[in-house]
UniProtKB/TrEMBL annotation:
It is an enzyme of class 1 (oxidoreductase). Belongs to the succinate dehydrogenase/fumarate reductase iron-sulfur protein family. Pfam families: Fer2_3. Residues 19-101 form the Succinate dehydogenase/fumarate reductase N-terminal domain. Its cofactor is [3Fe-4S] cluster; [2Fe-2S] cluster. The gene is frdB. Its EC number is 1.3.5.1. This is succinate dehydrogenase. It comes from Methylobacterium crusticola.
Length: 125
């Protein structure tokens, strides 16, 4: 019988956020990000997850709460049990597991203001 991990994905911060439950195949050594990528590829392409380096642990974009603790999804181990995943609670929530993690002075709206442009292309001066 195939071993399964059950991912409960809260699609927002807080305990009352809407959630989705996914059963994903489990193989020892897999990461939570591996499970989330399986969900996107095979079960629910609408699930938003941010990652760039895919398990090199260099981009730091996959940070989420795993069972209530801050973790990198690419280094947290997938386990054959129920795991609760949630976006970071202290960052602006964008969608599902994705939060705004760029420092304020590195965001596009800041760059546009610095260049004298409002977001949307309208000159501000
Ligand atoms: S995917 Fe880059 S640090 Fe996790």
């Amino acid at each position: 019988m195939a071993v399964t991990a059950h991912l409960i994905v809260r699609r927002g911060p807080g305990a009352d956020a809407p959630s989705s439950r996914y059963a994903v195949p489990y193989t020892p050594g897999q990461s939570v990000l591996d499970g989330l990528r399986f969900v996107r590829q095979a079960l629910d392409p609408s699930l938003s997850v941010r990652h760039s380096c895919i398990s090199a642990n260099t981009c730091k974009e996959c940070m989420i709460l795993v069972d209530g603790k801050v973790a990198y999804a690419c280094t947290a181990r997938l386990e054959p049990r129920e795991m609760v995943l949630q976006p970071l609670p202290n960052k602006p929530h964008l969608r599902d597991l994705v939060t705004e993690i760029a420092p304020p002075d590195e965001r596009l709206d800041h760059a546009l203001r610095t260049l004298g442009r409002a977001p949307g292309g309208t000159p501000t001066r």
